[in-house]
């Protein structure tokens, strides 16, 4: 059966861009701005405040155990709408918080909703709707999370500085409620007879692609599964550290606004890294691409250790931001390339679960290391080494032929 080319995949692409800008760029990437003012407001250590990030990511990790299966069985439009609504209400409730317990509970609830609404929705939706140029569109959509971070970090920092952290949470909650909830209402999860995925001209071919690849059980028998899982684990640990960068900048004697600008530099670098790595993965050998982006990540974190000039720190943050493209774009892309579409959301969910646990540990460990040593440098050394470890694991296990999923029966 033939069908005319549908423009619906591009609406899905636009929707995922909005989810990335607001979901990742605002909700995830600005949480660190609240650590210092909330710490002062309640008179507690930074490790205690950063526990809200630990609880958030721990809840997300547990949810990821079954999030992939839920997304494959429940109407995704309503599932995303409900999740974004709950996240918005939880953020708005923090404007009335008078104890750290309120923060912990709110961020646990957000953590439960986050894997479905943000972490998995973008790669799953794009994986369903783009059988060609997947790396490119995934890179652009996920790269916009960094654009959102670049945009929102100075805005939220300004609101906190001039109006307090409660108004910061009010602004974030309203943006999620007024933009992402309506966006979710107009989404369709999978192609159908009327709207085909990009790159497909017949329904039969589309159905064959959706059923090709490996199940989760088959993936467990493949070394590349464990290499990607290890890379996700160590690089998500690194991602958790990003929440402490603004605190690091303040700690070495520079103002919070400079810290927000350094984070914005990182987000701008991450935007460039995510967009470019997706484009390059569509065209070049994955090992070569991963080598250069791993190098960027390691060099950037070393810069954060040894530099103390604001402009140089911004440049270093931009470079380490380039390396962030591996975690959010390259790994979901490689999971699709290595294991196919058959059980993509479930395999992606399980691997992301490991990363979420690592991120939850990282946020707390970095805060604890700071409280014990008065510096974030030990944490930054760990981050640089993480990029080296992830590259070695992937280099040794990735298949050499691009765009070719092996026959599951051969396992």
TrEMBL record:
| CDD domains, sorted | MFS_YcxA_like (cd17355)
Q: Does this entry carry the keyword Transcription?
A: no
A single Gene Ontology molecular function, please? transmembrane transporter activity
* Localization, UniProt: Cell membrane
Keywords for this entry?
Membrane, Transmembrane, Transmembrane helix, Transport
Annotated Pfam families: MFS_1 (PF07690)
Report the transmembrane regions from the record.
12-35, 47-66, 78-98, 104-126, 138-161, 167-187, 224-242, 262-281, 288-307, 313-335, 347-366, 378-398
Q: How does it sit in the membrane?
A: Multi-pass membrane protein
GO CC terms? plasma membrane
- Source species, domain of life: Bacteria
Q: Which PANTHER family match?
A: MONOCARBOXYLATE MFS PERMEASE, MONOCARBOXYLATE TRANSPORTER
What is this protein's name? Major facilitator superfamily transporter
Species for this entry: Lactobacillus rodentium
